[in-house]
């Protein structure tokens, strides 16, 4: 686990997480814990594969992608017990542009698309940009976790509802939906012939005692109305290589995705992304297991620190992802939103809850950082909360 404790200076590397903060706030002393990428180097095997490609020196059009597809197939079977066929897989430059393209193909203006806030904020923007109406089916906070509201979901469905965007595992609240929960959701969507586009980009980042279920795997009846979006980007910190994969097991849906992607995207991913994906999915198991242990350690440290020093702050304990949702509802923030409070009073850059359709008293913090970074951020927040008002 020593490799995750070794600090890497990301400043002046043109990264959004650090250099973007400087551009936004014109300050060098803020602690960036916002953008959902990691402060850890990718696995050595990935770095070696990229180095070999660079040394080769030619970055022309790729051709035979059989090894790339096989790496994805093997990974999904090994880590998720889901047997994928090569013809089901459609490479894309990212999950967000893939979802946008799919919605353009599957909907017409004024159709309705369901999202479940608080949820990954591009969902809302994507639906609006393709001309559809957004229907919000908010999650319910109950028993110290967020749950789906199936009753309200079924009540809002009419003939104009065509698609539901599912975030699984959930960003930002960290739920890893269990099989029963997904079955209830899928049964409702099947009943009304609603297509589920399942964003499963965090599918490998699941803590012990939880299991990620690929949505199409939950029930054979869901196969024909499910599109699964995955990527190695969150798992292995490869987001900048812009490599994602859309997996469509149902033949009729697959034909529609094929039609759209053939006109929007090239039939191959980024050449460096190909090499990184093959290496990560072939050799990355141990690295991923160590990463999960380290992030779990960060979560435990945060929980213990808040329990001892910041009890008014509520931790919505994640079951997966490397993100944590914090509630400042019982904290005196001097009239500021939780985001502005931790930014202006503690110098910590988070993500505001309202950005995800949540409360202004909530923030999202990124735990995929070095332990000392997390410690420093929590000390600063403690100091801000306990600082006497003048």
Automatic annotation (TrEMBL):
Task: Domain (Aminotransferase class I/classII large): give its ranges.
Answer: 53-378
**Keyword Lyase tagged:** yes
Quote the EC number: 4.4.1.13
Cofactor(s), names only, from the UniProt record: pyridoxal 5'-phosphate
What keywords appear on the UniProt entry? Lyase, Pyridoxal phosphate
Q: Which SUPFAM superfamilies match?
A: PLP-dependent transferases
Establish whether keyword Protease is in the entry.
no
Which is an annotated GO molecular function term of this record?
Answer: cysteine-S-conjugate beta-lyase activity
Q: Which family does it belong to?
A: Belongs to the class-II pyridoxal-phosphate-dependent aminotransferase family. MalY/PatB cystathionine beta-lyase subfamily.
Task: Output this protein's name.
Answer: cysteine-S-conjugate beta-lyase
Q: Which organism is it from?
A: Proteinivorax tanatarense
Recall the taxonomic lineage recorded for the source organism.
Bacteria, Bacillati, Bacillota, Clostridia, Eubacteriales
